[in-house]
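Page header: ASSEMBLY MODEL / two components / 592 residues total.
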Amino acid sequence: MKKEIQVGIVQLAIDADVQHNRARLAQQIEHCAAQGAQLVVLQELHDSLYFCQTEHTEMFDYAHPIPGEATEFYAAVAKRLHIVLLTSLFEKRAPGLYHNTAVVFDSDGSIAGKYRKMHIPDDPAYYEKFYFTPGDLGFQPIETSVGKLGVLVCWDQWYPEAARLMAMNGADLLIYPTAIGWESSDSAEEKERQRSAWQIAQRAHAVSNGLPVIAINRVGVEADPSGATKGIRFWGTSFVAGPQGEILAQASDSEEETMIVSVSLERSEQVRRIWPFFRDRRIDAYGDIVKRYGNN
Amino acid sequence: MKKEIQVGIVQLAIDADVQHNRARLAQQIEHCAAQGAQLVVLQELHDSLYFCQTEHTEMFDYAHPIPGEATEFYAAVAKRLHIVLLTSLFEKRAPGLYHNTAVVFDSDGSIAGKYRKMHIPDDPAYYEKFYFTPGDLGFQPIETSVGKLGVLVCWDQWYPEAARLMAMNGADLLIYPTAIGWESSDSAEEKERQRSAWQIAQRAHAVSNGLPVIAINRVGVEADPSGATKGIRFWGTSFVAGPQGEILAQASDSEEETMIVSVSLERSEQVRRIWPFFRDRRIDAYGDIVKRYGNN
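Prediction written out in full:
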């Protein structure tokens, strides 16, 4: 494990042209590498528009096997630039069986590991349960040359159980590729409560587990093809928090942005010495966590 | 369950005279009741100085059986003012067996229930493992005439498992009586990180569980009887957050303060409809939460 890593964070607006998106992503990844990034992290489902605003079977054409066309593209980028690269892809596992899958490439271009999104949302304009089967790989960090990456995806960010299990399984940091935004009919106050809740929940994972947390969100407005809503304005605000939940860097809520952030993987040790939350967990009293809800 | 409750929050500096502290607390509770409070919540171990700064057997004299002298005093206050009252007491269960116990009185003066602090800290100036046996009552909300109170205490606030289990067991809100402060040798930046982490962790419990959260902290400086440290400056900042983690009210970080805050127990329903985190918990994949740590 390195003591301090330079992390490149790419927050982009995406359009309907997959090849164009990939080319723009590769350009920003290269920009990060040129500035010394050792790890570059991309937002959720970065290759395409956020297609889950409607339920249409032709959207499954965006999916690819892993390994396959998409991983070959990103493997080559990682190898050429000699960086660890976190991508977020639409995985075709079998006909009629698809996942929302993060794939991590090591700096030699090999696949270091993958994580299949475990918690799948479904609410107006985010019809993910139609597209993605919930993950079956559990909460295992991905071992790379820069450290053990606790990769989780978007909706997972609301679940302290996921963050805890990643930390208990040895993650050096948590990383959340995300695609979250506002519906235009919400009030300004409600929008701010949502974005703030989103950030607080993830900063708290840093606090509870004494780990840095990185969130990468998309930005820009994407129309609803059905016209049922006014589309989603993705709120950007990609950020990095240290192991006390303190904000180390934060991107714009409306513009594309690429940031290089220095993240210490050593400070966790110091923070956990004085906040030894793992020491005092009441594992004798947590058994009901695996229940659906209380006693009914 | 009431739809909206008026909560009185009493943040005080405490001195060595227990009778004097009780009289001042009763005065503030009465002040809350006069302003319409239906529930009044007190800070952790409010009857005495925070005696855990050192380890001395004579400190066990502060403890009382439950029911006993302390509960008789507060039961009478609750009954007289016809309010639900949350107290935090040093419980003598048997010679050599003590707990840090929150006792809730209903508005008729009866004991509605008690909670024994489950997670016990131990770090310089907070030698609680010497004094308190970890609780054995689990994470059960206390049923009262104003709702089911998810009472947790101080160090519990760093554990998302505790908040989750209280919520799953039907709590209408979470309440954390607390005694936390700064050590003088920390830098201003470190102090701010600590206070911010403390607040974020609790606001995130509101977010993850779609519940209001109330934290009541003591304030003022208490000397270290051993002289080993410069004592603790308790950072006050008692607050109430709504079910999206939004701050509804916040007290001073250095002054005594009594606040009346209106808390909706109805908004949780609306928030959970659009953020249905309980719907998607992966209870098939959380089993390792009861492990101490990963696979080693």
